[in-house]
Specification:
Elements: E1 6-10, H1 16-25, E2 29-33, H2 54-67, H3 69-74, E3 77-80, H4 84-88, E4 96-101, H5 107-120, E5 121-129, H6 141-152, E6 157-163, E7 166-171
Parallel strand pairs: 1-2, 1-4, 2-3, 4-5
Antiparallel strand pairs: 5-7, 6-7
This protein binds S-adenosylmethionine (SAM).
GO biological process, one term: methylation
InterPro entries: SAM-dependent_MTases_sf
Protein name: Class I SAM-dependent methyltransferase
Length: about 170
């Protein structure tokens, strides 16, 4: 991804990938979009089932904020503790240089994340994400949504790379 960008990570969990984004791309501004919400019915998700609770999610949020306290203080990083659709809606269209999608992996959520990101990323910007080609508890929702998006938006995007579980698309 381009350096010094205005970018967003949808779904950050404890911030391991956030840390890589900061180290490798030195963004001008990185928005972390994550509701840190326990969803009981997602019993196989990190944020669902018996191993999770809202208390634990609040702890994950707090410790992730602490992990990046310097970047938060400088304004390089900002948390939007919200569902990705609601959070992205707060931005003007064509705002971001790139958006990384790794939030709710169910088909209907990934579909929305892709379509909303398409609006919010500038022309020449990137829509990228994780867990393509993985079936998981989300029943292959990422692969299905990405494939459908590539087909439906074929005149408006270029597939830059699909390697392993990572996909990179460019808005034309
Ligand atoms: C797979 S983890 C993210 C892992 C992280 N990107 C990394 O590589 O270290 C998925 C995250 O998505 C978040 N999430 C779930 N539903 C979401 C939604 N509707 N919008 C944004 N994030 C969501 C969860 O709270 C969880 O932290």
């Amino acid at each position: 991804m381009p350096k010094k960008a205005i970018c967003a990570e949808i779904g950050a969990w404890k911030g391991d990938f956030t840390s890589e984004i900061l180290r490798q791309t030195k963004p001008k501004k990185l928005y972390i979009i994550d509701p840190y919400l326990h969803v009981e019915t997602y019993d196989k998700a990190w944020y669902g089932g018996l191993d999770s609770s809202q208390e634990k999610m609040d702890e994950v949020f707090k410790s992730t904020q602490q992990r990046f306290e310097n970047e938060l203080y400088s304004g390089q990083l900002e948390f939007l503790r919200d569902d990705s659709t609601k959070a992205l809606d707060k931005f003007e269209d064509d705002h971001f240089d790139w958006i990384y999608i790794d939030g709710n992996h169910l088909y209907e959520y990934v579909k929305l994340d892709l379509e909303n990101s398409f609006k919010k990323v500038k022309s020449g910007g990137y829509i990228t994400g994780d867990d393509y080609n993985l079936v998981g508890w989300w029943d292959d929702g990422v692969t299905k949504a990405v494939n459908e998006f590539i087909e439906n938006f074929k005149d408006s995007i270029t597939v830059i790379s699909i390697k392993g579980t990572q996909f990179i698309l460019r808005k034309n």
